[in-house]
Amino acid sequence: MKVKSWSTSLAVAVVASVVSPTADAGARPGLPLVDVVAEAARARAAAEPGLAAATWTDTKVDVRRSADDRWSFGAVVLVAPRQEDARPRDWLFVAEKRDGRWHVGLDGHPAFAELAASSPVVTGEEKAVFAAHGGAPATAIDGDYRTGMQLPWAVGQSWTMLGGPHAHDAGSGPWSSLDLAGGDQRVLAARAGLAYTTCVGLVRVLHPDGYASRYYHLWDHVQADGLSVAAGTFLGHTGTETGCGGVARARHVHFSLMHNGSFIGIANHIVGKWVLRNGAAQYGGSALHGSTLVNVGGALHNYGALGRTQGLVDANGGTVVNRRSGPGSGYPVVGTSADGATVDIRCSANGTAHTGRWGTTSLWNRLPDGTWISDAFTYTGVDGPVGAPC
Ligand SMILES: [Zn+2]
């Protein structure tokens, strides 16, 4: 049937042009912006693992800035039902009306970075950060577990890990989130970036390299719309706020790790100089600081952020790791580093192979004082050198 096959291929072509990230045809002419944004959010949620679009009870579109009836910027939230393990989903959006049609980009989509780059309602600081939030949804981080984040409270305080790695909605998505409470209950930005309050109780901070950190259930929180924050800037207090759905029984912060607008598994990532580890089930799990293991229910001391060219000494159950005068066990011992210590890595080279907690490697790292430590006993978050070759 020639006609039918022609119409089928036309339909495919139309669908392809609508979902194309760069050359989208835009929404139907005349369709209001809020409808276009809501539809984009529901389509995005439907494409995510573990998120069932049918569970959203409502969609809130918050247009925050606009110009010339052509440019718009704001937030969109899919409101969750008031039940256990249901939580809202939120994005920022940038929109431009061309030829009577709204073109919308949600953060973590190429159109977001593209539209932001030329939008007069997006600040220069936002353009720089948003440029790194235009990747494909759920971009893999390629085995690089460095986040540059501290735990979301004051460095030096210890809070309780009430819940270990679990999915954003306790569903089948990536185990991106931790439930945390304690100390002075003041939730602070885990890393520098731009903060946005997308919902009552919900703050998200976009970081310059595509990472985002997200904080939910907050009481008395900042009302942020592009607020420039440093690591440690106050965001709100732990609470039980569920302004956009879900349930929280005891006060805590539901802290989530995101990249390119999607939740990613937090396991193996370094936050506050702890390496998060999944349990057999959601909300279980543990965290490692060197060889110090804290199970769910235990206290995590916030040691601050681990730098991109730093390592956490992990003696794999021992108390110290030898430092040597060269990259191998044949060189004399010239010092030791304590388990859990932070080392600055100047450069790396191959030497004798050793086996630590995370596997076997022949890589050695040279420290600022010229001594060397095996990478087998240095957790850097990267399976390979973090800096230049020596
Ligand atoms: Zn949680």
Automatic annotation (TrEMBL):
Q: Which SUPFAM superfamilies match?
A: Duplicated hybrid motif
The residues the entry assigns to the signal sequence are 1-25
Tell me which residues make up the M23ase beta-sheet core domain. Answer: 183-262
Q: Does the keyword Nucleus apply?
A: no
Keywords of this protein's UniProt record, alphabetized? Signal
Does the record carry Repeat as a key word?
A: no
Q: Which Pfam families match?
A: Peptidase_M23
Supply the name of the protein. Answer: Peptidoglycan DD-metalloendopeptidase family protein
Organism, as annotated? Saccharothrix hoggarensis
